[in-house]
Design goal:
By secondary structure, the chain is an all-alpha fold. It contains three helices and no strands.
Amino acid sequence: MKDRWSTKDTLIKRIKAADESDKSAWEEFVSYYKSFIEALLAKSRFSLNEKDDLIQEILIRIWKGIPS
């Protein structure tokens, strides 16, 4: 269970190497980490809409930070 949320180095490398036409790596990343982000926000007092917005904002920041 400890490794459930471990960062997949190969997935990060695929995202960095992918060109804009290759969406599969990013889709896999979102599929893998969205539930992790949801779990982090689960006990918060945000509304469902606020949580959805936060998840989207977090994923956008990750996307923008990938090159670095």
